[in-house]
Amino acid sequence: MAWLEGYPREKVQWFPTVDESKCVGCGMCMNCGRNVYDWVNGKPKVVRSYNCVVGCTSCANLCLGKAISFPDIESVRDLYKKRRYLG
Predict the structure, then answer these.
(1) Torsion angle of the four alpha carbons 13, 47, 28, 74, in this order, in degrees rounded to the nearest 10
(2) From CA 35, how far away is CA 4, in angstroms rounded?
């Protein structure tokens, strides 16, 4: 994310979590343009979590089983405030 330029991505805890019990194996999450997932045994697995774009939730929005979740966006907003990116 442009506003976090120069801030270590590993310090931003923003990436998806997949609840395998809800996953229907639709594969919609594999449309992620940042290559966050691998397809393992008919299910997605988050393998490159820090490739995820901070604030993006596209895969969760596409997920037919509602199996993908993200941390509370407030943690990202707090980081922006602390870094003075937001007023």
Answers:
(1) 0
(2) 20
Q: Where are the beta strands (DSSP E) in 26-82?
A: 37-40, 43-46, 68-69
User: Using one digit for the tens of pLDDT, what is the confidence trace for 27-45?
Assistant: 999 999 999 999 999 999 9
Question: 5-22, pLDDT tens digit by residue?
Answer: 778 889 999 999 999 999
Give the rounded distance of the alpha carbon of 28 from its chain centre: 14
Domains in the chain, CATH or no CATH each:
11-82 (3.30.70.20)
Tell me the backbone φ, ψ of residue 37, rounded to 5 degrees: -105, 155
Q: pTM for the full model?
A: 0.87
Name residues whose C-beta falls within 8 Å of residue 84's C-beta, 6 or more positions apart in sequence: none
Can you tell me the distance from the alpha carbon of 31 to that of 46, in angstroms, rounded to the nearest whole number? 13
